Amino acid sequence: LQECILSGIMSVNGKKVLHMDRNSYYGGESASITPLEDLYKRFNLPGTPPESMGRGRDWNVDLIPKFLMANGQLVKMLLYTEVTRYLDFKVIEGSFVYKGGKIYKVPSTEAEALASSLMGLFEKRRFRKFLVYVANFDENDPRTFEGVDPKKTTMRDVYKKFDLGQDVIDFTGHALALYRTDDYLDQPCQETINRIKLYSESLARYGKSPYLYPLYGLGELPQGFAR
């Protein structure tokens, strides 16, 4: 994928690029394998896909699965190189968290947030204050810090400042900032605030979810840049 992006950006800037690939498909390790039969071959699985899985061509299996943030760096590069002409994107319908034996939708609108049982009424107010703070936060403008030092204050202290409870902290750290562990709590808050900001800005772009996904799998990305 890196090489494909580089060759795309270089060609947009008037350079001549020779693009070579050792496989019969684009993207190397970040390809999407289709049809299903090819996936079986690639991983030396015995036999053929069962009939219950339908047509092999209906599948695109990502070797490195991930979503794109609607306002993230990669989407900006896609727009800059106009690779978007070769791609169809789909907005992910919604994301969910599992908590205390139940599955909850991560709220994506204010109405959903107010109706969500992920947090109580007073929590929601405090959380909203916190989100407004994050939206206004600008690392180049100390007036937006409100007594927080982005390079020194830990995220744990920022949560304390807004009096957020454990449930909200879990939800924010893992469903919005997308951390896998809680190590981030004792690190300077700048990175986390920027992650939550990216999530919110991405959500604002398409309104349903912050995540985009190429319609025919992530393998479309290297293919688009290579074209």
From TrEMBL:
One Gene Ontology CC term in the entry: Golgi apparatus
GO molecular function, one term: Rab GDP-dissociation inhibitor activity
Membrane topology, as annotated: Peripheral membrane protein
Function (record text): Regulates the GDP/GTP exchange reaction of most RAB proteins by inhibiting the dissociation of GDP from them, and the subsequent binding of GTP.
Acetylation among keywords: yes
Coiled coil: none
Organism from which the protein derives: Rhipidura dahli
Membrane-crossing residue ranges in chain numbering: none
Quaternary structure note: Interacts with RHOH. Interacts with the GDP-bound inactive forms of RAB3A, RAB3B, RAB3C, RAB5A, RAB5B, RAB5C, RAB8A, RAB8B, RAB10, RAB12, RAB35, and RAB43; binds RAB3D to a lesser extent. Interacts with DZIP1; this interaction negatively regulates the interaction of GDI2 with GDP-bound RAB8A.
GO biological process: one example: protein transport
Name this protein carries in UniProt: Rab GDP dissociation inhibitor
Gene name tied to this protein: Gdi2
The organism's place on the tree of life at top rank: Eukaryota
Location of the protein in the cell: Cytoplasm; Golgi apparatus, trans-Golgi network; Membrane
PANTHER family documented for this protein: RAB GDP DISSOCIATION INHIBITOR BETA, RAB GDP-DISSOCIATION INHIBITOR
Membership in a protein family: Belongs to the Rab GDI family.
Record carries keyword Nucleus: no
UniProtKB keywords: Acetylation, Cytoplasm, Golgi apparatus, GTPase activation, Membrane, Phosphoprotein
